[in-house]
Amino acid sequence: MTDNDFDAASNFVQEKPWRLVNIVQSLRPYLAGGGIAVGSGCLWGYWVGYEWFYRPISPGPATHPLTALCLLLLGTSALLINRSTIFRGLSTGLIFVVLAFCLVWFVDLTFPVHISPFITPFQGSVTLDIQHGKSNSLGLNSLVLLVGTAASLIFYNARYLAAAQAFSFLAAFIPAVSLVGYLYGVENLYGAMSLWTALAGVCVGLSALCMTAEGGLLRYVLSPYSWGWVFRTQSVLGLIFPLALGFLILEVMRLNDHRVFGVYVVGNIWFILLMVGVSSFFLEKVDQQRRRSELKLLEAATQDQLTGLANRRKFFEFGRYEIQRIDRSNNNGLWLLMMDLDHFKNINDAAGHDMGDKVLVMVSRAMQKSVRSVDLVSRLGGEEFAVLLPDSTPDGAEHVANRILASVNSLCILGWTDIHGPVTLSIGCSRITPGSTLEDGMKSADSALYEAKRNGRNQLLMADSAGQSQYQ
Ligand SMILES: Nc1nc2c(ncn2[C@@H]2O[C@H](COP(=O)(O)OP(=O)(O)OP(=O)(O)O)[C@@H](O)[C@H]2O)c(=O)[nH]1
């Protein structure tokens, strides 16, 4: 694994700052302020008798004073919610006041009673409007918008972010439909909801949505990683494309050609399919990168950096796995070679550390070439190596050990062997019998290796000839 590979892998693993979450959360007071401004503007309009402030398009729907009051209270509640305990208490109080108003409203809408006029501020103006045949009523849409926002704030206070998000989304959705109606000039879409109610409703609904940015779905939409980018790009396109297409289609339909409605349906289906296709493309790319990084991290965790051989960790993993296998099956057994380069310190001292490293790399290659593909050569540390030979025989293990001795002896390392003679190593060999542990095998092979060193180095010693016979 090169340094660049490692950087790429660690970039992938390191957590990036989730800045967008903070940015979206910081929008909350402004949006809540928007709701407060519109709500109080409407009430002020009723107070001074300035109609435009509560009926922006005349003759069109007006913002009912109770709706304006509730929007003002909810905006204030959203503004205070993250403050000190007193303000949070006040904020909760305001939510319950709104819910109480909504209950009265609901009773009025459901049963043949009229309680709301008793709690409505500026009821006189409302009565006058109705007498003059102007629209000024409490609508079901506004009720759902207010209850949705209030529920979202309550769930936010209880830290149920996903539920808070779902309710705020619902709350903002309803006035958003009315806004589209105003944009398209289609009365059926906005019905009895005034432009001010729609604007203030979107503001308070979105302010409730913004405060939940650290959880639920929104957190993933705001992710700093590729999937967040894909989602955001698609959300913006998903907003613009159907809106623009809808606008065009509506213009054509106004000319009484209703066949273009099919174009709208097919256009949107086509658009969704395209977006899904683009998502799959990016998802696959990200997943590919993740798979590659995982592989690199796995390699880094199990490989010796200098020689590319298996490291100590891999040696123990492989050894324990193979021991389980010989315990279960009746194969020839697992053989272990413990190996140590002779007088390696001299190489470092005489020719420098770089030459020492070069020797280690070349010796590792020679060892790797001398074994079967099922064997595992590992560097346990320094100039100490080990080979695990699964399903082998005494002759087979001896043969491999001698092949390693010969191939290391015959290495030609410019700057060392040409001046100081061949590199040599000593090997101790043991068999790991069923029921014994890897540590037992290492102990026996180490003793044999120690004897080989004492006997003059550059040789193989089987554990039995070192007086510790382990195989029959
Ligand atoms: N160049 C290099 N040297 C290393 C590395 N790891 C350990 N060494 C050196 O290897 C040397 C091991 O020396 P010793 O333990 O005395 O062994 P030896 O000189 O081979 O002597 P015997 O084993 O008795 O034959 C030390 O000088 C370590 O600094 C490495 O990654 N690169």
Automatic annotation (TrEMBL):
GO MF annotation, one? diguanylate cyclase activity
Q: Where is the GGDEF domain?
A: 332-465
Name the UniProt record assigns to this protein: diguanylate cyclase
Q: Which GO terms describe its biological process?
A: cell adhesion involved in single-species biofilm formation; negative regulation of bacterial-type flagellum-dependent cell motility
What's in the keyword line of the UniProt record?
Answer: Membrane, Transmembrane, Transmembrane helix
Q: Does the keyword Transport apply?
A: no
> Would you say which domain of life the source belongs to?
Bacteria
Q: Name one GO cellular component term.
A: plasma membrane
Enzyme Commission code? 2.7.7.65
Q: Where are the transmembrane segments?
A: 29-50, 62-81, 93-115, 135-156, 163-184, 196-217, 229-249, 261-283
